[in-house]
Specification:
The protein has about 270 residues and is an alpha/beta fold. The chain is built from seven helices and twelve strands. This is M55 family metallopeptidase.
């Protein structure tokens, strides 16, 4: 049995604002430790449940946050940037299940540090389905027939996951008060919860079906301002929906849509105030 674990940072226990997730800020180093330990609770439980191989993908910012020396020795870690498939790098049809750790709500929804890839995105769509990082990544897993068994993060991420993926297990380590405040478990209690929920999710994996993406999906990204849409529209094959800041791209499959999203958001980040 082979497990894929994608680990983001905004949904980790006790982390509530940019000082926790920005490598230049004072809270970042202690946050890395909590993040790594949280991933390790999931990984260690999987090995205890006799899963033979666990691959962890560092999925936050420059994707070099996890402290490899604190992980279970049998873990394989995908780390660093640039990755062609970012938060789901290395995921393919050889896996029997996936778990998302440290995840957060999508942009425009209530949740701790809620966003979708960059802060300039208001909404992302696959056809008419609004998705964030969680949903997009789950669609990629579904392309490879891999079910997302568990999502751990704040209550906003749990609500989003449960709407998208029937029977998914969720582990809520903090409850949003605002976008930069939460009522959080301590790392010790969160660790206990993660171990219990991971064990349950792995034992009940047959109850969860992959989130199958549509054939030839239409990707839509609504940006915060028109300048960002203009930058994203520089990618060949895109179009701006007249009268909006939505940029659309007709993809051959969800993998092409995912990489198009990465290119469009990277371009949009070049927008300046004036």
């Amino acid at each position: 049995m082979k497990l894929y674990v994608s680990v983001d940072m905004e949904g980790i226990t006790g982390l509530v604002d940019h000082t926790h997730v920005d490598s230049n800020k004072h809270n970042y180093e202690r946050s890395r430790i909590i993040m790594t330990d949280e991933a390790n609770h999931v990984v260690t439980t999987a090995f205890e449940q006799k899963w033979k191989e666990v691959v962890v993908n560092d999925s936050h910012s420059k994707m070099n946050n996890l402290l490899i020396e604190r992980l279970h020795p049998d873990t394989q870690l995908i780390t660093g940037d640039v990755k062609p498939f970012s938060m789901v790098q290395g995921l393919d049809d050889t896996y029997d299940g996936a778990i998302f750790v440290g995840y957060h709500a999508r942009a425009s929804l209530k949740g701790v540090m809620s966003h979708s890839m960059i802060f300039g995105v208001r909404n992302m769509y696959i056809n008419d389905v609004a998705v964030g990082e969680l949903g997009f990544n789950a669609f990629v897993a579904g392309y490879f027939d891999v079910p997302v068994l568990m999502v751990a993060g704040d209550d906003g991420a749990a609500i989003e996951a449960e709407k998208l993926i029937p029977n998914v297990t969720t582990a809520v380590v903090k409850e949003s008060i605002s976008r930069s405040a939460a009522k959080s478990l301590t790392p010790v209690k969160a660790g206990q919860l993660l171990r219990e929920k991971t064990a349950f999710a792995l034992k009940n994996k047959e109850t969860v079906k992959p989130l199958t993406p549509p054939d030839r999906p239409m990707l839509g990204i609504e940006f915060a301002n028109y300048g960002q849409a203009e930058w994203a529209n520089l990618m060949p094959g895109t179009e701006i929906v007249p009268g909006t800041t939505i940029v659309r791209f007709q993809a051959k499959n969800i993998l092409e849509a995912y990489q198009a999203m990465l290119v469009m958001t990277e371009l949009a980040m070049r927008t300046t105030f004036c």
